[in-house]
Amino acid sequence: MKRFFSIFISVFLSLSLVLTGCSKDNKDQSNEAKDNVQTSSEDVKKFEPSITFNGSSTLAPVISAISTDFIEDNTTWNKVDDKFPEENIAIYVSAGGSGAGIKAVIDGTSDFGMVAREIKEEEKKKIKDIKEVKIGIDALTIAVNPENPLHKVKNDLSKDEIKKIFAGEYKYWDEVDKSLPHTEIVVVTRDLSGGAHEVFQKNIMGDTQVRQDAIQSPSMGALVSKIMENKNTMGYASFGMVNQNEGKLIPLKVDGVEPTKESILDGSYIISRPLIVVKKGELTPTQQHFIDTVMSEEGLKIIEEMGFVPVK
């Protein structure tokens, strides 16, 4: 799909010819988002043609996909709102982790931070007049390679068993189940200072640390690739990534609960995390138009198509 051409960094200065390819449904939903914003003459004076996002590598492809459709539907800002000048829409999306997104907002180097965890109280204090928009929910699934026999003999791990695997107390697969081969377990995590690992540490590990030789991946995409490349690897893969790579990853139950849209929403699956867009201060009119599009039916549909659970 065209929206997946830009995954981590997107800069678009689209040609008007692109508009001719827009579907009626997309235009109708885009118009619905436009109608929700009343632009005054004072708002026009605050006009900013570009919008920047920085943060979570899980959330970046989602914002990138929505921005692609937004630009292809409108091209220039006057087509979003006729009070705006005829300037090209430019939306920049870069992935550096949830912590980097928060720092970028605090430092003023990005308009929005993308965060795939709860925002800490000390972070809220540093962001003056914080604005948070929760756009969806993700979960961290305990996932293995389809060729790993674990999921055929034991597709349900207790929280204590997961902790022993990630801490290194279980070093070989036959320590998890005697029918499995005496092969070393390879553990992959996100970087230990990142938002995804904070969620895993809080919900599974508690005060126990992961083994020192665990592979730390720089992004969720890299973590998922490690699992797909090596049948002896176990890691905590994003629910969205598992859905995007259907059949290439096997998510296991945790304490008897399968990671599904329903179990994530009702909280019975214990390793979930919010997907949040955060900003310092009031949104400009152009920013408000784009965020309204993210939260429109079309925006929520894209979030769901990319494997996450949208928040309506």
UniProtKB/TrEMBL annotation:
The keyword Methyltransferase does not apply. The keyword Methyltransferase does not apply. It is found in: Cell membrane. CDD domains: PBP2_phosphate_like_1. GO terms for biological process: phosphate ion transport. It is a lipid-anchor. Pfam families: PBP_like_2. Keywords: Lipoprotein, Palmitate, Phosphate transport, Signal, Transport. Residues 50-298 form the PBP domain. GO terms for cellular component: plasma membrane. Residues 1-21 form the signal peptide. The complex is composed of two ATP-binding proteins (PstB), two transmembrane proteins (PstC and PstA) and a solute-binding protein (PstS). Part of the ABC transporter complex PstSACB involved in phosphate import. PANTHER family: PERIPLASMIC PHOSPHATE BINDING COMPONENT OF PHOSPHATE ABC TRANSPORTER, PHOSPHATE-BINDING PROTEIN PSTS. Belongs to the PstS family. This is ABC transporter phosphate-binding protein PstS. It comes from Gottschalkia purinilytica (Clostridium purinilyticum). The gene is pstS2.
